[in-house]
């Protein structure tokens, strides 16, 4: 029961995280003329401020000492911070340079990359439908590479970096706020140093005459922290395969924004590539739902069998007890009759039937 409650909570966190990430392309253009690296540095600095306030409110500090005592865990946290920095920076650059659709493709193929990592790193075994979906995904990337005239490197880097980040978070098994605090703490000094250097060079956009721009840059902490906290909380509660399914939400919103709101071009070859990706995702979804139904059916059957066995055992125990009582009464009657008529007591074998069925 507790496991089911945890998984439901993880699903809610996952829906929240991916829904917010799906709409975030609307925010980054508001930060122009700031460049992608400057925005990234502000994300790192202000995210630590946000999670620091959250930790103060929750009074959670014991994990810091525990993290510092575990070099392996600290190294994984550093790796997670580095990987998510690449993902953040490239995504901001893509959105502000008219590549929202290509960025959305990265998160469309991310479930396929997650499955591939599950096979290569975790030793998971794929079902036939999953192999077919991965094959279709590879074909889609080839079609898009031909259409773009180059590999869709933005999509591929985003997909692999975020899949790797999810895997590391799974290995870390830390709470959402704690893991984000550790990652942003490791990134804070380099990010702050870069921002101070920009200011010394007179190239910082934070101190512009428009105070609204400064507030928007500071808001990157909230925009970054809230969905990542939700994602971290989901990653430790649900399987990687479930996270892969939830990831469809973000690229659907992003793709829609890229085509409808940002009016990015969609030539036929790009539609073909995206269509192949969607076929692969539909196949993955169908296979996941079918497997889940079969698992539930097997669990229900096992539960019914266990209940039947328990009922049979109870019935057998009751019958044995009844037979024992009857045998005891028979034995007692025989003893009384022997005493009255002077007959010898019956041998112990009279009580043999009390053993019940073999």
Automatic annotation (TrEMBL):
Keywords: Cell membrane, Membrane, Transmembrane, Transmembrane helix, Transport
Stretches that traverse the bilayer: 12-31, 43-62, 74-93, 105-122, 129-146, 152-168, 180-200, 212-236, 248-265, 271-289
Cellular localisation: Cell membrane
Membrane topology: Multi-pass membrane protein
InterPro entries: EamA_dom, EmrE-like, RarD
Major subcellular site: membrane
Family according to the record: Belongs to the EamA transporter family.
Protein name, as recorded: EamA family transporter RarD
